[in-house]
Design brief:
It is a single chain. The protein is mainly α. The protein contains one helix and no strands. The chain has one helix spanning about 5-115.
Length: about 120
Amino acid sequence: MDNEKFQELMLDQFAKMFSEFHGLKGEFHGLKGEVQGLKGEFQKLNDSQVRMEDKFNLQLTSLQDFRVSQDRIAQDNKDQHTTFATKIEELQFEARIAAKKLNIHDEEILQLKKAK
């Protein structure tokens, strides 16, 4: 093979390699763009997850606060029930005493009427 043919062959090979290199370079830039796109989508998903976690945490906190307030209300109702039950017992006792006093007064009135 003479020198000119060898140089021509080498130039063809370099041209093919250069062409393939540019093709690979284009594919690399395409992949780089896709990776950037995936990073953006991942960031959106991450932001969405953070928002959902914040919302869930807020709802869970609200539910816990509601449960605590319901426990307080239930305890207050129980205390009021106990207070009312005690007052009713006191009133019943006073009513029995008043009824006995009324019976005594009725008997005294009857005796006074009989004595007249």
